[in-house]
């Protein structure tokens, strides 16, 4: 681990991918379903804001919290990120108000359609506890000229063999 990774590096990588898969890690019977989320905002204190579908059991907008995992992966990128932490529902839209307006159509800002769309969603603030950052490395063909040519033609018709290694594991306090 020759490089030093900090939280600003991780947040810039999250902004680069922007969408990830969220899982509820709680052991209660009332689990939040898996969601594909788009991160609206990140900050330097280790918090992420995003929307999830409103849980069926939470029809009265009662605040709730649960342990969650986020996985950020995108084709064509040579890295992926796994985050774990505590996710809390919040009704404070002040933190992400400018980002909500960016995601709605300008013709519908403040309209009934925007309000109905947001009523089916819950704003989540997730405090990151642990970050795992991985990078992919492709195996380079080795050997003489004939072996390299053979590996080249095999590579045209098969999936490359990727290996990954943990570059950084950060635990936030």
Q: Which labels suit this protein?
A:
Pnp Oxidase, Chain A; alpha+beta; 8-stranded antiparallel β-sheet; 173 residues
3D architecture notes:
- The protein is 23% helix and 39% strand.
- Strands 1, 2, 3, 4, 5, 6, 7 and 8 form an eight-stranded antiparallel sheet that branches.
- By secondary structure, it is an alpha+beta fold.
- It starts with 6 loop residues before the first helix and ends with a strand.
- It has helices at 7-17, 97-103, 112-119, 145-157; strands spanning 19-24, 35-38, 41-42, 47-53, 65-73, 79-89, 121-138, 162-171.
- A hairpin with a 5-residue loop joins strand 5 and strand 6 (79-89).
Helix content: 10-25%
The CATH architecture assignment turns out to be: Roll
The CATH superfamily turns out to be Electron Transport, Fmn-binding Protein, Chain A
- From the N-terminal CA to the C-terminal CA, the straight-line distance is 21 Å
